């Protein structure tokens, strides 16, 4: 097991290098000169040249990449071209906000998704099953920016029960859980729907397996057969989906944070894009990618713990 | 007369599908004497597995026992509640299956899976059950059981897994073991080991065995009585010696003729022509009539009952009834049978 974990961790290294190359080149393939942007519209040719020189924009691209990466490895992601503050500080202030938002959304998605999926599978072809699957289809089809706006309209503006924005401090979600509810629902609904459908189909597949018949032949109750013998097997593919969903939430947070005016990584990225603040965009995408790779590493390890048959060594 | 532990009478099981009712088992009767082995033989789709699943009421959701009785020690267990049935399953009546590779749950250890029967039925705690599991693995001839008990099914070979299945089935000392083609998926040498093991354990523990198989060789080796099934019905029931020496139903005769036998003077194997009828389009008369070389109009029109010869042997064929319209001496797949009529 330990050998597997070490191997799996080592495997992420080439992935991370690939990700960094991709992110770095993408930023440099985008048209527009950052030096020009920093200098402003009316700046002289010479000022632009000076800035280019300072940022090292005239070096060959692989040198630029090398310089950037040696900074990254020392925790230096460069400076914002707008505020001049260190990118790592800008991101650091907002990183946990997004992680927390995605984490809560994942918990919501897993909780609702698993419950709905199990009920659907156990009561297959009944009214309850059909109702759950129709709702799940709705959840899946709704774009979350739209869902967010509808929720704000109903519960914040209309009923006035919950705030329409989430005032977040760098320290986290702070005092008011009420602020969390709408953004988390907005972000987590789609994931809940996917997990519900996945759990249902996985359960139905497992229920027809020979070992379920064996379990019943032992005289076990339906409850034990369903929740002990079937569920543990059915969860194996669901775990993968949960990991991917968490990654998806990190990306999905861009919209949700914008709608609810949450000061997280998503909103930071959107602002940086509109301001062409490329070091921030680059840093944010890199951090999110690394996080995504890391989450999938955890998924793979838990996968191995759940499924004893997987033997990658 | 031997004590009968299980008596199946007029069992009918149907599956209700979108295309209509499928009568998978349609009139199956046999009895299981205490401590003896009864074989249920038939080709794929003859309803032998469904018969065994019907006894334990482990059918798929769309399957239902529509008629008949299953008397376990004189009580009709078809009337039992689900809770009462659970008390029987794995406790009084156990079952092992054809596919040892897929019949064990991949995410639990061997020990956990055997222990479950013990904690469920015998009220043992986990520690006691685990200790008993080791004993059971020893009983079914698994080397170093203390190590095996903590292993997962994927770490075991097919033969080992079937031994684990048997250990699991025998955990609570059942009175009946239903073995549904337990050796079909195994290598021939392993088959012989498993058959020997079942036989040996039966002698030691005194249980009855219902042995479901398509292999007449296995029947000859293990069974005391045999029920031959064809298209959802029992067509012949007799003790194993009678069945092999003097089979009476044309289907049984055909089956034995199509089997290579070192002891008989066979010039060549005789195949049974044609196919098993589709469950959606069963013949109105005798179900074997379309393939039977001796079939008459009566056979094609009217389904025969199981006729008893007064010695406990039964056959579902018009030849052995007064109404038989054909010749007195009937040629069935090259063998001569004297008609009753």
From TrEMBL, chain A:
Residues 95-299 form the ABC transmembrane type-1 domain. InterPro entries: BPD_transp_1_N, MetI-like, MetI-like_sf. One of its GO terms (cellular component) is plasma membrane. It is found in: Cell membrane. The chain crosses the membrane at residues 12-30, 101-122, 134-157, 177-196, 234-260, 280-299. It is a multi-pass membrane protein. CDD domains: TM_PBP2 (cd06261). The keyword Transmembrane applies. One of its GO terms (biological process) is transmembrane transport. Keywords: Cell membrane, Membrane, Transmembrane, Transmembrane helix, Transport. Belongs to the binding-protein-dependent transport system permease family. This is Peptide/nickel transport system permease protein. It comes from Bhargavaea ginsengi. The lineage of its organism: Bacteria, Bacillati, Bacillota, Bacilli, Bacillales.
TrEMBL record, chain B:
Coiled coil: none annotated. One of its GO terms (molecular function) is ATP hydrolysis activity. Keywords: ATP-binding, Cell membrane, Membrane, Nucleotide-binding, Transport. It comes from Bhargavaea ginsengi. The lineage of its organism: Bacteria, Bacillati, Bacillota, Bacilli, Bacillales. GO terms for biological process: peptide transport. Residues 8-256 form the ABC transporter domain. It is a peripheral membrane protein. Belongs to the ABC transporter superfamily. This is Peptide/nickel transport system ATP-binding protein. Gene3D superfamilies: P-loop containing nucleotide triphosphate hydrolases. The keyword Membrane applies. It holds the Pfam family ABC_tran. InterPro entries: AAA+_ATPase, ABC_Ni/Peptide_Import, ABC_transporter-like_ATP-bd, ABC_transporter-like_CS, Oligopep_ABC_C, P-loop_NTPase.
